[in-house]
Amino acid sequence: FILYFADALVSPFLALFFLEIGITGTKQGILLALIPLSNLLGNLLYGKLSFNLKRNLRLASLLCFIQLIVMSFYGFLTNFGFLIVFTIIFSLHNSPSFSLTDGIGCKYNDLEHKKYAITRMFGSLGYLVSVFVGGILIDFIDYKYVFLIASLLFAFAGIIFFFMEPKEETVLEKKKISYK
User: Fold this and answer.
1) SS3 180
2) What's the burial of 41, exposed, middle or buried (CB within 10 Å: 0-12/13-18/19+)?
3) Angle of helix 116-140 versus helix 143-163 axis, rounded to 10
4) What are phi and psi of 109, to 5 degrees?
5) What is the pLDDT of residue 176?
6) Phi-psi group of 77: left, alpha or beta (phi > 0 → left; psi -120 to 50 → alpha; rest → beta)
7) Neighbours of 123 (CB within 10 A)
8) C-alpha closest to that of 72 among 133, 139, 158
9) Helix (H, G, I), strand (E, B) or coil at 33
10) Which of 36, 68, 84, 153 is the most exposed place for a label (fewest CB within 10 A)?
11) pLDDT value of residue 21
12) What does the pLDDT read at residue 170?
């Protein structure tokens, strides 16, 4: 819920932020195109680094803290070059955080013999509430403060991931590790 809430204070509002700071249509297109490209590269990278629950929890925590740092500065940027760099860094780590979170959620639900779809609804609910709240916040405060709120939520999610204890590994996971 928290991770999706944090992301929904940022991702759906980036194009509007670019308009507000006067970025031209072509430059907006470049920045927005960098997001899925960086997401793809980030997923490939972190997919290679991911192989068990303990490591995935640490990676998810790290990704949240990287997003915290990037979003702490993002709302203060107006230079196109800096926006390119920060957009790439954010996007390289944003999409993989959700892939890792989904994997972690599946693993915990599997170990607890529960359905993942029920748990996943909390992420969707977080996104739904946050987009609504984000829209209201933007009416009253600047984007930089909304992004700072998102940063704090990324930090909170990162702390939760960091302190989560990995559950016992499944037999399949133990076999996979032993072959490496």
Assistant:
1) coil
2) middle
3) 150
4) -65, -40
5) 56
6) beta
7) 20
8) 158
9) helix
10) 36
11) 95
12) 52
Q: Return the SS3 of 24.
A: coil
Q: What is the pLDDT of residue 143?
A: 94
Distances (CA, A) of 124 to 128, 160, 161: 6, 19, 19
Task: Compute the distance between CA of residue 90 and CA of residue 74 in angstroms, rounded to an integer.
Answer: 9
The residues of the chain scoring below 50 in pLDDT are: 179-180
pLDDT of residue 179: 45
Total residues belonging to the chain: 180
Token pair for residue 48? 């290679």
Would the CA dihedral through 101, 105, 106, 108 be positive or negative?
positive
Q: Which two tokens stand for residue 171?
A: 């037999």
At 112 the pLDDT is 77
- Enter the tokens of residue 168: 């016992």
Is 0.70 surpassed by the pTM of this model?
Answer: yes
Eight-class DSSP state of 167:
P
Query: Which 3 state secondary structure label does DSSP give 117?
Result: helix
